[in-house]
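User: Quick one: structure for sequence A, then sequence B.

Assistant: Sequence A:
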Amino acid sequence: MGNASILAAVTARAVPEIYRAPAGVLRAIADGEYATEVTSAPITVAMSESALPALVQQMLEPAFYPHAVQEPIQLLQTHISYVLLTGEFAYKVKKPMDFGFLDFTTLDKRQFFIQEELRLNQRGAAELYLEALPISQDESGVYRLGGTGEPVEYALKMRQFPQEALLPQVFDRGELTPNLVVDLAKEIARFHGGLTTSDRIKSFGSVAGVRAAFDENYEQTAGFIGGPQTQAQFDETKALTDAFFVEQADLLARRVQGGFVRECHGDLHLGNICYWNDRFYLFDCIEFNEPFRFVDVMYDIAYIVMDLQLRQRPDLSALFLNTYIEHTGDYEGLQVLPLYVSRQSYVRAKVTSFLLGDPAISAEKKAEVTATAAKYYKLALQCLQPRAGSLYVMCGLSGSGKSTVARSLAQHLDAIHIRSDAVRKHLAGIDLYESGSAGEFGSGIYTPEMTQQTYDRLQELGILLASLGYPVILDAKYDKQAVRQAIADAAKDKQLPLTFISCEAPLETVRQWLRDRTGDIADATADLLDAQVQAFELLTDAEQAMTSVVRTDGDLAAQIASF
């Protein structure tokens, strides 16, 4: 490439899409969690080829590679890595830097972290993270990729994918559909289900371990009071998290004991997920700092919940969250989720606020950055503030549209949706898509005893989560007056508003819907419908006074909008 200038793209993790900071600022604000490479549209700064290390200069030449390349080879640069884009493949070389939160200063350390990056990212993106390769140098100074000589450096070989496959770009094009959000939640549930833990990993879930990052955030943002956030916001956010760590120490201990603190992704925001070739890839795990990835699984999904909330799509956020908890059964995790959503939002606010210290930013840009940071600070507080919870209890025959209504209502209200079909199978210890029926009404996992356990669990979860301020939808037949009375009494005892939602449609329509149903976790079939009708206990006059009727053969959108 001769003396031509090379465009080096300098990016920082999670810098808001609305604004890309100058390179010098991004180097200055590297704080660990936001210290790697992915954004969908990095800025570029001119850098002469002569300023680059000799290895990187040679990596810009097609002859360096044992395969065909797309010319000119592109160089992306961050404060910790060089990334060379060759067409089909990308190669990453780590810089010999020490930022405190990471140390790449020796060859052995760079080799270790290259291998760690490969290992960690092959869990969620094996088709993208291919191999770690040694780089040797001959006597004439020529570097050789994968050579047999003594290694002088190591490179991570990755498969390139188009930038338009990144989820922020998919979202911006209006293509992050509800169906894709459901598939994403299932993929992350599968990913988390395969993660490991150990006594050492669990130790990072202690109150002290979790709290340290919060305290650091407050120390680092006190200087922004009077700018992106007010003194009152700062004080209240800090007071609420301080109180959580004192009052909920036992909850955090239960999360540790339950095995929910695992070797997670550590930075699972939308910008670190791509949808390519009809599947999701979760990439760019944090390899360089264990406290950032030895975390609660709810810490991981909090990024996506936050991203969708800030993008003004609470409906997609609710759909993602409900699908995730349905497939993991981690309903109790919702007790800690607000803490972690607050934490991820506050870190975004902090990193965005740091940009205000760059003298090169214009007054107009500073106003834009201030507004962006203010949104993050606001969300960080809002998700911690007390809310009034409520209960919505579905009633109706199998196939009457209860789950369809409940799913739509959850997106409309940003509510938690708990299906009895999922709860029952989690209690039975079987896969959600495995049949639990022996083919007869009341058989298999549908015995009276198992049904009572299911309703008890639904009630336990509903009261717990509604008491925390969530709107909660309990989705089951609720065909017996005893189980309806039990949930009504429990709600009254906790002073929680409760509404029964009766889903109604002509019997033959329901029968046909059951015949047509495929790919759902529910086991009920059309041949069980008549027995259900005979067993169903009609709502009493008192219950009807607490009931909203939804005609599921009518205009659902209009009826749901009335709630």
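Sequence B:
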Amino acid sequence: MTMKHFAVFFLALGTSSVHAVAQTATTPAAFCDKDIRPAVIAFCHDLADFQTQVNKNVAEADLSGDFNKLDLSKPQAAVDFITAVAGQMNAKTAMQSAAQGLVGWLNQQRTDQQLGAGASATGTTSLVTKAGSSQLISLAVDSGGLTRSVNGTTATLGTNSDQIFRTVTNHNPNCLLYVNCTSLGWFEDNILNKLSLSAGFSLAQQSTTTAASSGQASGSASSAVSNVAIPSGAGRLANISAKFEVRNKFDPHQQAFQSKWKDLVDANADMKAAIKTIGDNTDLIKATLQKDAPQLDQDALYQAAKSDKSGTVLDNYFNEYFTAALQKVEVDASLPVNVVNVLQNRATYHDLWNTMLDNAAGTLFTVQYTFDQPLNQPKTHDFTVVYGYSFKTMGAVTANGGFSLYDGALPAGAQYGRFHYGQISAEYDQNLSGKTSSLQEQLTLAAYWQYQPQPSVLNIAAGTVAPGTNIPIPNGTQEFVGTAGSLWVAQGKLTIKGAGGIDIPVGVSWSNKTDLLQDSKVGAQVGISYDLSSLSSYFGGSSH
């Protein structure tokens, strides 16, 4: 592996991060950053630099270096050319397939991802909240309770806010590899990308609505009934959650990182091969461009920039030049193959880069908020802190700490306070299969402790007939049910993870009691979840 290959390699992969530097609204880059044309996006940084120089009245004769970066017949333009055509020619299909395959493999290996409902749901297979979430959209259906007395079925729809934003704004949502994607700015990197949302629906629990009674239809009653509970649906919204991933910052430009990175590359044969392949195939692409690509009309490009300081005319002219040049170079059948090889090895690089960043940044740390609406119980606000630590091949540990508060003002005469419960929990996860297996098995051992200062509160709806009588309760009431104190739960679970994004968890649990009943409980949980990140290509979006 030569220094030339190493330089080409870092230049290729550094392009996206360099181009993502924030721009002010008055600079040309602020315009081309919003452009959806692949050629303009890939060459945005160089176009912005060129326009800035022209706006400063730099003479055309003094811009030879800038011209070379935009002239496809010059070697300096090859790296951005590869990025620009990643979503075109035959490389688009090949690269999407390679990216989806790697995404699926990575999801199979992950032990930090949670797609289903949390421990407090009536249908769940997860005793501990994990730090990770779905990458695009996930759907999970879980049956069997852990801390609840009622065994129900819960459907959970989860999403990452950044991936949804990229999808609805016509940007490529499959940006895990950063092969042909650019950052949309600070808000995306620091807020959207770290924020995951989910909603849980209790499928086996009937929802009700309180309605006013207009009088007795038959018979006689000792007291008038003013309100009644009527069914409003076969399923109900059980909870809404927001999860924000907090990451330690780490500067890859620091000498300490560069030293660690060099050691990691030197020790990895696949990385050395990827760097060499990128260099070799980039040289072949350069040769094709030099042979077939038309030379850039430097005077016309200069005049385009001169006529409009905003950069619009320049971007339009360059896109026309790029399109015409691409038609000429596409006749070389080896070009798509070489482009695919470069992109696939960029993916290998970025996988290792992400691993290096994770090692440098430390372990996962996440905070989660959930608005919970349990059936016939007061609504709650639940707050959870999630800490995860990976032991590499020795598995991973996740720990939770959290508390729950009752929603809104307490009823008059309430014998309980706003504090519902506090809990701590932990679990150990270990992949049991070899990394080359098409099916992955993940073992989970979990323990949960919850303390309630008061027994659980049960809402008795208006119109409910008091047990042993024919007397309806006119305005509803609340009763303590179960016991205060500690709730202990232990669970063992096996999750079978398929390459297509399908997970099937099966668990067995024991608890000393549940939220409403005092007796111990042995239960089983089963679920199925599907991560739609493997279908990201069907959501469209431009290749940036």
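The CA atoms of residues 504 and 528 lie 5 Å apart. The mean pLDDT is 76.

User: Thanks, that's what I needed.
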